[in-house]
Amino acid sequence: xxxxxxxxxxxxxxxxxxxxxxxxxxxxxxxxxxxxxxxxxxxxxxxxxxxxxxxxxxxxxxxxxxxxxxxxxxxxxxxxxxxxxxxxxxxxxxxxxxxxxxxxxxxxxxxxxxxxxxxxxxxxxxxxxxxxxxxxxxxxxxxxxxxxxxxxxxxxxxxxxxxxxxxxxxxxxxxxxxxxxxxxxxxxxxxxxxxxxxxxxxxxxxxxxxxxxxxxxxxxxxxxxxxxxxxxxxxxxxxxxxxxxxxxxxxx
Length: 252
Ligand SMILES: [Zn+2]
Known about the structure:
Blueprint: H1 10-19, E1 22-27, H2 41-57, E2 60-61, H3 84-100, E3 105-110, H4 116-128, E4 132-136, H5 138-141, H6 146-149, H7 160-169, E5 181-182, E6 210-211, H8 217-240, H9 243-246
Parallel strand pairs: 1-2, 1-3, 3-4
Antiparallel strand pairs: 5-6
This protein binds zinc ion (ZN).
């Protein structure tokens, strides 16, 4: 059975949509992840998690939306940022296109934390239009396991935690020999109680926050298994849930 929308014909898609009101949409970003990881890290991980979950549950999965909100990484070559407004509209129109075919429940597998606020706002707006969106983030789903496997300095952007996920999913495109450890620095004006519009380049030269040389495929595998099983659990519950129970009508 096919589960990727772009591999189906329109007649196969019709068959799916006639019987199902749920779909999975992976969203990520294309931004620097240190000298060792691919720029596509966040969307490649989201895609892998979404497709594996689709395979295990029979729920339709869309192509990954590869670009996200990442202008704070722009001084590192190859980062392709889009604005929060553009991401929100693009994802919203994609969801509404699914809504046209009767989809009422959409799971977004978000691979980039910077997208979260825009996606949460969008989910509220879609609820008003009769589409219920849930947003999944792998590092939150593995929130208990991750601190057991990685020290806090290994858990930053492009650190050992993220690099380990790439090592298990995409070993051929990780240059582990290029991995570095870099303690993030502080901008001179940083003070207690102050928030600043920092870019990544203000805090790190390599793009890595903390330690990345300790990444391992074995640790990545443990995280991957936990994350996919959490995701499958959610999709099964979401699939079973009735839309009228998720979006209650005014009380009588
Ligand atoms: Zn990332």
